[in-house]
Structure prediction request, 253 residues.
Amino acid sequence: MKVFVMNKKRVIFALCFIIVIIATAVSVAYCENTSVFKNTNSLPIYCVDNTQKMIAISFDAGWGNEDTEKLIEILGENGVKATFFLVGSWVDNYPQSTKALADAGHSIQNHSNTHPYLSQLSSDDIKSEILACNKKIKKITGTAPILIRPPYGDYNAAVIDTVESINMYPIQWSVDSLDWKDISADEIYNNVVPKVKSGDIVLFHNAAAHTPEALPRIIKDLKKQGYKFVLIKDLIYKDNYSIDSTGKQIQGE
Prediction:
């Protein structure tokens, strides 16, 4: 009888051990299969591999606030939602404009807290910049950003790895309006419309002198070409993707 009891204990122990091993294996497999990021090139997302004629327009807001209300008006009149990357200090200075953008249905995302060169910061300082801005935006809009555009378009592998370590998506652009150079509305138009392809992310700025003049024509002509305007968060793939050497996000590994 004693031998039977010992054997029974051993059998129970072995079964428990096997169950633990199986549960661990399943857990690991689940985590691997649901991994958000497949960014082996340590690049931000410049554009998306998409054949459905969808594009996203975006605005960086870090300094002035001269045209924000006008941009909201133009975008509303044309039925377009855009992605606005806000610097934390801009949010501090213009909380009402931050709320107005969100209330109008635009996507409010992160452009750092103080607009530094992130590649010159430690990983901890990069996180602090991002999380501080996230906190300010969430306090006003109720929603924390999931995207960040590094200031000046400046990044390195450490920046990208740090961004992804906190489950955010680093975003660049594939079409640059160059509106920050104080160029004419026609020049802004020519920097955008002839160059746009499906899956592109277009860069504008909220305080550029001639962007409000150029924007209605840009939207109208791109719509004529069959393009649909979507938010960046809806354009990109959230999981099961890779990024090629050009920064194009591609669905699947």
Confidence is low (pLDDT under 50) at residues 1-37. The radius of gyration is 23 Å. The domain at 47-251 is CATH 3.20.20.370 (TIM Barrel). The chain has two domains: 1-34, 47-251.
